[in-house]
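Entry, Tuesday afternoon. Goal for today is a structural model of the target with guanosine-5'-triphosphate bound, before we commit to ordering more compound. Inputs were pasted exactly as handed over by J.K., no edits. I checked the ligand SMILES twice against the vendor sheet because last time a stereocentre got dropped in transcription.
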Amino acid sequence: MTVSAIAQAAAEASTGSVTAFPAVDAARVPRDTRPLRLITCGSVDDGKSTLIGRLLWDTKAVKEDQAATLRRDSGKQNDLGLPDFALLLDGLQAEREQGITIDVAYRYFATDKRSFIVADTPGHEQYTRNMATGASTADLAVLLVDARTGLLEQTRRHATIATLMGIKQFVLAVNKFDLTGYDRARFDQISHEFKELALSLGVRQITAIPMSALKGENVVYDGKESMPWYDGPTLVEVLELATVRSAQTVGFRLPVQRVSRPGESFRGYQGTVAGGSVKPGDSVVILPSGMVANVTKIVTFDLVRNAAVAGDAITLVLDRQVDVSRGDMIVSLESQPQTGLAFDAQLVALQSDGIQPGKRYWLKSGSRRQRVTVQPSSLLDLKSGKWNHHTDGLSMNAIGKVHLAFDEQAVFDAYEQNRTTGAFILIDPDTNNTVAGGMITGKRSSLSGIHTEDSRVILSLPADLADQLMATELFASRREEADIRRVNAGKAAEVLDGIDG
Amino acid sequence: MPSTLPETELHNPQTTKTPLDPHLKALENEAIHIFREVAAEFDKPVMLYSVGKDSSVLLHLARKAFYPGRVPFPLLHVNTGWKFSEMIAFRNDIVKKYDLDFIEHINPRGAAENVTPFTHGSALFTDIMKTEGLRQALDAGGFDAAFGGARRDEEASRAKERIYSFRTPEHRWDPRAQRPELWNIYNGMIRKGESVRAFPLSNWTEVDIWRYIQVEEIPLVPLYYAKERPYIERDGMMILAEDPRLELLPGETVKHGSIRFRTLGDFPLTGAIPSVATNLEEVIAELEIATVSERQGRAIDRDQSGSMEKKKREGYF
Ligand SMILES: Nc1nc2c(ncn2[C@@H]2O[C@H](COP(=O)(O)OP(=O)(O)OP(=O)(O)O)[C@@H](O)[C@H]2O)c(=O)[nH]1
Ligand SMILES: [Mg+2]
């Protein structure tokens, strides 16, 4: 047989094999959107890696040589004669030895409808930092629960971190359902319990699916044979319909990564658009300096463009000589982020030293790195979902609300508004390690109308607003920190103008 | 006017190209972001350039990231002395064509102790010529950051690696203690002697690489396209038979057939596949129906599960 005949035969053999699932044509996958980014999370051993392994297997993302290696490495790990799908994910020696996931694995697969980037995260509490790593960029979370044990504290922790990090779409996978005799009542009970948790977290998009990751029921193929009563979607069907995180609708933001000066005649500001859009002629402000300029050109390797949108890596040219350096932010004139020396944030402590009150850390956000001190104000109790007053340090894996105090002007949007300009990490200057991930909730203001007296904040508000505020949960947890004074509407309007600006 | 560079000079001549689809555009944007971040944060970056398809994409992205400026760091080729000759010719052309700063390093132990893939076996040969050679070159240059073209979809331990992969002064990777890496905020803080390997192509798959090469019209070593070539079969691999240093073992004969390579490295350790794909469209078409992974053709990756992790712990990129 000639070589080309071998190739032909190989091609025929692979296309000729009949599969129930349409063979995936990787290169023809619709690419009109970017891939959906998802994570699997949940407590130890609930089957996260097995689920992703099964997903890769059933979408034909596992090649023959990889399948052979998997079969060889699997040994006898279950009674069903199935491979240990988790080994497709748990690629580190230490993980294989211990049968657990330690660090997040990124994998890529596609169906004929769309492509996916999946991050398989570890369930062990000790490695929560690696779960947070995966969650920070995800559009959707698949939260696994072992049907036999139900929701655990670690399930709640992961659901909470995922929500804090802006994930709004959840799939609750009630897994190992084969081990409960496919008990429908159990499914209803766990789904109900989770929906209550999700509601308290403000999550509305939830799909609960009874599943056997190991046997592949309701993953890619349906589980009708074992669960005729379930007529909802399979996991893949949900993933195919999920939405990617919308490009931010806020104002233009360009954190400047570097200044390009290839010659005397050219000066461009390079960075990735972190929000909104820009076109030549737009007026922009450079923050924190506050200088104003106009955009003359958007330069890229391919062509001079007439517009750039969130996500684009560009080089911006301005119409006048202004002082711009790495770490500055170029923003739209009309809709600016907040600038100040004090902000409020929520954060997750990621390392064993925790977060010390008063210690000076490095904060990095976008391309800007600056000194900050952190003062915790409250701590989340995972069991009750309540924020408790707390001014001590935050221990590893704790989720807290903190005040940030800067030496130099800082520039942020609220994380709710912009997942890029509202996010930051803390770096311990002693170890250089990343010790926390944080989300800005807002600026701490010292404007007229808000006075700090003995660290109590006095808010002057119109009577109806004051009453509303006092009724909120936020206020309830911080009652000892603030005084609310009712004022007339005219005076209040002045104050509010000041805050908005 | 600060920008007096005439408009025409800013135009790349090839504007007739098909625009990138959103999927590839997102990958390109991410890679450019990483390039700029590393270039701005580190004192002395270098780009590892292995002449293969991933390196070709990496170089293209580097040129895009710093345009209209030059690529602000040198390329480093850790040669083993056993590369395909077409790779070296191609490499020399590219360096000249794009006006790049270029460093080549070959571990002197190779010649001094006559280290070859045939005498030392693939594992030891790779260890000395690639891993040790890379460490030597990085130390000699005092580089604190090295870009690599590794992709997470290549191998299970790669799938675990951060975009900024921290290395000790001995170039070791500790997979159990990787820094958290949230959002696209990269922590580039290191002490003297420590370094970071940065992987702008982390989230690309093999198909993405090929499609990007197609849309961007990136030149490649011709070995990636099928042609009548002489080869021998050894250990289940098709080895190119054109270098006089390849000695035939008893029973081996030189055959001729239309073959190409999915991945390029040292010719005695890199297997070809039978193929009739003589251009990009055909290569991509073959890829769609491929039933084995690209790593199948690499002797060094087949040794055992976990062999890549072991190499990486020792400083392999
Ligand atoms: N019977 C049954 N066993 C399952 C199912 N899913 C997972 N398992 C088994 O549960 C064990 C743990 O699975 P993993 O996938 O490693 O769990 P994990 O959630 O990834 O664990 P960590 O990453 O360490 O938190 C393995 O032995 C799996 O075979 C299932 O649906 N049915
Ligand atoms: Mg796991």
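Chain A has four domains: 3-241, 253-332, 338-443, 463-496.
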